[in-house]
Amino acid sequence: MRAPAAIRLRPVAALLMLGMLSACASTPSVPLVLAPDMERVWPLPPDAARVAWLHQVREPADVGVAEPGRRFFKGLAGKQTPPRIESPVGLYADEDGWLLVADTGLQVVHIFNLKAPSYAQAFQLPEGRLASPVGVTLDREGGRIFVSDSIQNRIFLYRTDGYLIGWMGEGLNRVAGLAWDAQRGHLIAADTGNHRVLVFDRDGVQIKEIGHRGDQPGEFNFPTHVAVDGAGNIYVSDSLNFRVQVFGPEGDLQRGVGRAGQTVGSFSKPKGVAVDKNGTLFVVDGIYDVVQMFDASGQVLMHFGSAGSKPGHFWLPAGIAVAGEDIYVADTQNQRVQLFRMLPAPLGDGT
After folding, report:
1. For position 11, what pLDDT does the model report?
2. Contact, 168 vs 6, CB < 8 A?
């Protein structure tokens, strides 16, 4: 990969040193085979179940990594502790088994592969470590993990084994959610403090700016999370306008979803957004402790979850990711990622 000014790359020697500090993997074993928990389903009977609870992840052992290869540093003081999710905020997941968790509490990105299974961390910087990793996504073809740091106002690049590659981003203000458009080789970033969404090419050059502060269609008031579908449509959680806005690949506004309110289909604090291959939109509400689901036209389908700490309950959830039929939710204050699975019955069939 060439090194344009937009992405600053680390020298090879430094990469090797940083990788030794940050990477970890286990000896591959048999991956977990998980079945839906049919006692924890949504909606409740007598309605046909659409979503079932599957599993939760707090530490590497939960995905089959019994003994990580080394202990990890926790916080700036250097206290050693076994790796454990503390404050998950941003998520990425795919059908290759990658699960990436941006953890502001431990100041790391947890790099799980559920199919290997394996585990690593990304956190090291040339001088110090990540301060507030809040967004994460993966360029699978290029093998690059993008991590947004809302305090350092940079987007950092790592390999999937935790080696630092470089960094990018100028003029960012509380940069947050990230999404990778694999079809176009574009990185989409929520530049929260500047009330806009930025699009970069694969070399880190900014090619598009969407929106500015306001409450009219196409404007933002602290956008926090982003997602992209296979057609290149961009979904933005417009947090303090209490809606999700959908833009075409060129940045043209397509529609808005939701409004402020206390009923299904409205939001109090929309956060993570994700979209599946069928065009179903998933939106986390961090105040109501639910995930709401909408069809491709923006009509509400259903919701799942409730407040609490048991399986299927949330406490200030944040990020969300969808991989095939599996749904991953960053259950922030419960210090875990919860996994759910879509069930075969078609949504919206009226049963």
Report:
1. 59
2. yes
Cα 266 from Cα 41, distance rounded (Å): 22
pTM value surpassing 0.85: yes
The answer for residues whose C-beta is within 8 angstroms of residue 304's C-beta and 6 or more apart is: 42, 43, 50, 51, 290, 291, 293, 312, 340
Residue 285's pLDDT is 95
User: Closest Cα to residue 120, out of 304, 132, 138, 257?
Assistant: 138
Pairing of strands 270-275, 281-285: antiparallel
Can the peptide bond before residue 43 be classed as cis, meaning omega within 30 degrees of 0? yes
Q: Which two tokens stand for residue 347?
A: 């949504």
What's the pLDDT band for 263 if we cut at 50, 70, 90? confident
The encoded tokens of residue 73 equal 């540093």
Considering only CA atoms, which of 344, 345, 337 is closest in space to residue 110? 337
Q: What is the number of residues in the chain?
A: 351
Distance of alpha carbon 350 from alpha carbon 45, whole angstroms: 14
pLDDT of residue 4 exceeding 70: no
For residue 161, which amino acid is it? D
